[in-house]
Each structure stands twice: as structure tokens, then as C-alpha cells.
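re: that chain from earlier
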Amino acid sequence: MLVIGYISAAPLFVLLGLLNVVYIVAPVLLVLGLVGYLMKATNPKFSEWAKQIAVWLGITSLLPLVAWFGTAAFYPPPDSEEFNRVQSRLNERLGSATTQTDKDALRAEIDQRAKQNTDAEHKFERRMFWVAWPVGILALVIGTFVSVQTVGAGLMFGGIGTLAEGCFESWDHLGPWLRVAALLSSLIIIIILGLCRFRRQPESLTQSF
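^ sequence. v structure.
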């Protein structure tokens, strides 16, 4: 019955996988199509919009990647492939072991290596947080006051993405008070930046209308 249930649910899993792919690919194709249309437009203003979208999208997408790979360059994460390969060999040796003493020793070694790998992952994730959080805040501050709107918006969206990346990487391993402090301080900084940058905008907007 269990096998039949898996078989009957297989189309659902395939459909969910396809939906996830669509959700990821569709926005990218939409943006690329819009950029391509604007680039081919005869109106020079449309071509400039396409370039601005490309700059904004590039900064927004590359800044979180720079934060992640920059952290990994100085503090490399644990090698998951090597860990899985070593664990697989130890499990094979455990399966072929004949004495209880050898089995206990192999189980202890497997558990120890798993704990070391988990500790190394947690250490990297904490480092990622302490790099991504200040980088994201700095990008938000700089982007708020950059006069070139495309670059400023790219830095701000990239900063938000970097903040989310840093929190997501280590969220399960941050203490509850550190989670609240990181989120609350980020929110307060964004509100202050918004007030400083746009407090006179409503007057200009009402005059323009």
C-alpha cells in the first residue's frame, strides 16, 4: 500500500516541481523579454530604460552573491562532497565489520565526523550573518543617498537581499534575542533612512500633480 501511495502521488510531486521551476524561470524570462523589447524600441527613452533595468537587476542580484562568495573565500564552508564520501566509506566498513568493538568504534567515528561537519556549517553560517548584515545595511545607507536613481535602487534592493541572505543562512542558529535585535535594528534603520530621504517628497508630489 505504501508503494502504491508513492506511485499515485508521483504525478503530484512532478507537478509541484514544475510549478517551482515556473515560479523561478517566469519572472526571469519576463524581465529579459521586457529588456529585449525596450532595447529594440525605436524610442531612445525606451532604450535608456532597458539599460537602467539591466544595471538595477545586476546590482540587485550580484550584491548578495558577492557577500556570500566573499565570505566563502576567506572562511570556506565545509566540503559536503568530501564529508559524504568519507561517511559512505565508514558506513561500508561498518556494514562489513564483524566484531562489536569495531562496530562501536566506527559508529563513534561516524557520529564525531557528523558533529564536526555540523559545527563547521554553523560556524560558517554565523560568519555569513556577521558579513551579510553590515554589508546589507551599508548598501541600504549608500543607496538611499546616491543621486543616480538606478544605482541607488539597485544598492537598496541588493542590500535587502543581502540582509535576507545573512539572516536566512544562520536563522536557526541565532539566539532569539539576536534574531529580534537584527530584525528590529534593520527595520529602524530602514525607517530612519526613509524619513531622512523622502520626508519632503509629498510636497513635491502634490505640486507635480
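The chain has one domain: 16-199.
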